[in-house]
Specification:
By secondary structure, the chain is mainly beta. The protein contains 1 helix and 8 strands; from the N terminus they run βαβββββββ. The protein is globular.
Length: about 130
């Protein structure tokens, strides 16, 4: 099944088409500064993975990825990752991997900028 380039969910502004090709300079700080919360874009593809940039505030819905791990790295703000039975809090310069098949939800109490690394075919809103 082909992954959608744009996801039709009014709660989030998500695009899965890569914004940058190899050998292009990416100014992550400037790109993030120009966005408002619930903006999520694929920056580029690296081998079989994609690097995504998100600006969020509030909470995402509970979901899981049956076949893909998901790595979160906080650039600014604070990110809580709720898992069944515990919550992991991430400050800037901290990261965390949610293994495939694990039900999770991300929450940001204030504007938060984060990078995510995941398999290129992942559906960001979950399986």
């Amino acid at each position: 099944m082909d992954k959608p380039e744009s996801l039709s969910d009014d709660r989030y502004d998500i695009e899965t088409q890569a914004l940058y090709e190899p050998l292009q300079h990416i100014d992550v700080g400037a790109l993030a500064a120009a966005q408002t919360p619930w903006w999520n874009r694929t920056l580029c593809q690296v081998n079989d993975a994609v690097v995504r940039l998100a600006v969020i505030e509030g909470e995402f819905h509970w979901h899981k990825h049956d076949e893909e791990d998901e790595f979160f790295y906080v650039v600014s703000g604070h990110l809580d990752i709720d898992l069944e039975g515990k919550t992991v809090g991430l400050a800037p310069d901290q990261g965390f991997t949610v293994p495939k098949g694990v039900l999770h939800r991300t929450r940001a109490p204030r504007r938060t900028v984060m990078l995510m690394v995941e398999k290129a075919g992942v559906v960001p809103t979950g399986d």
